[in-house]
Amino acid sequence: MARFKVGWQLQPQHCTIEQLRTAWKTADEMSVDTIWTWDHFYPLYGEVDGAHFEGWSLLAAMACETRRAQFGMLVTCNSYRNPELLADMARTVDQLSGGRLILGIGSGWFEKDYDEYGYRFGTPLWRLEQLEAALQRIKSRIDKLNPGPSGKMPVMIGGGGEKVTLRLVAEHADMWNGFGPPRSFARKNRILDEWCEKAGRNPEEVERTVLVGSEDDHQVEEFLKAGATHIIYGSDAPFDPAPVERLVEAARG
User: Looking at CB atoms within 10 Å, which of 9, 152, 170, 209 has the fewest?
Assistant: First the structure.
């Protein structure tokens, strides 16, 4: 099996703050490459009004309580924050961490968040147009901030839209996050390569990550063959580290 990076997404639903804090400290001690949470206001499954926490607040705490791993949102919903504000938040969290933040972003999709918090949901195309405009504004604001990010602060874009999202990845991102099954991931991976070539960019400059769960454990090698170089395991409370430990062992050969 080829070597690969390992991440752990801690889904902030149906849990306590102490469970989250224990999990990201455990992840850092396990030498995972990346630690993630998500950007929603309500659980995505289980009890619809169950316990849930806001993601960027968690990232600030994660920045201060971990020491080694990179970390970020998988992924920030562009619709929820003014792009200039998001740029300022990101560089501040990056400074808190000593330069380990990954700025993950996407166009958004969970309609309940929009409805409950008063955001315009619009159409998928409209949200993608908003994302494209925001990426330019975020970059411009980061260039103006004093101080700027402590590190390079890579940009990740999540999503699989072949006509717009993958083009935006090729034009703006350092990392792309996709989903399974492996055959679909492989197809979108090839299309991203094509977009990179059209943008005059070496496809190898874009790191390929994939989010998996317990149902995908047996498909890790297939995802690697499909072009993934970074496997991110998503789980919620009680945040069992065993599957991630197995991934770390496999990744180190």
Answer: 152
Residue type, 7: G
Using alpha carbons, select from 75, 72, 42 the residue that is nearest to residue 60: 72
Instruction: Give the separation between CA 163 and CA 167, rounded to whole angstroms.
Output: 7
Report residue 227 as tokens: 């072009």
Residues 37 and 11 sit within 8 Å (Cβ to Cβ): yes
Over residues 4-17, mean pLDDT = 98
Q: Which of 166, 199, 205 is nearest to 185 (CA)?
A: 166
Region for 31 from its dihedrals, namely left if φ exceeds 0, alpha if ψ lies in -120 to 50, beta otherwise: left
Which residues are within 8 A (CB) of 15 and not within 5 positions of it... i.e. 6 or more apart? 51, 53, 236, 237, 238, 239
Query: Looking at per-residue confidence, does 12 or 218 come out higher?
Result: 12
In this predicted structure, the answer to whether residue 56 has a pLDDT above a threshold of 80 is yes
Q: Report the C-alpha gap between 245 and 229 in whole angstroms.
A: 17
Instruction: Kindly state the helix (H) or strand (E) to which residue 214 belongs, with its residue range.
Output: none
Count the domains in the chain: 1
CB 145 within 8 A of CB 87: yes
Domain of residue 243, CATH code: 3.20.20.30
Question: What integer pLDDT is reported at residue 102 of this predicted model?
Answer: 98
Contact by Cβ (8 Å): 69, 28 = yes
Q: Which two tokens stand for residue 153?
A: 């602060």
Distance CA 41, CA 182 (A): 29
Model pTM?
0.96
For 175, phi then psi, to 5°, come to -140, 150
Q: For residue 181, what are the domain limits?
A: 5-251
**Measured distance CA(119)–CA(31) in Å, rounded:** 38
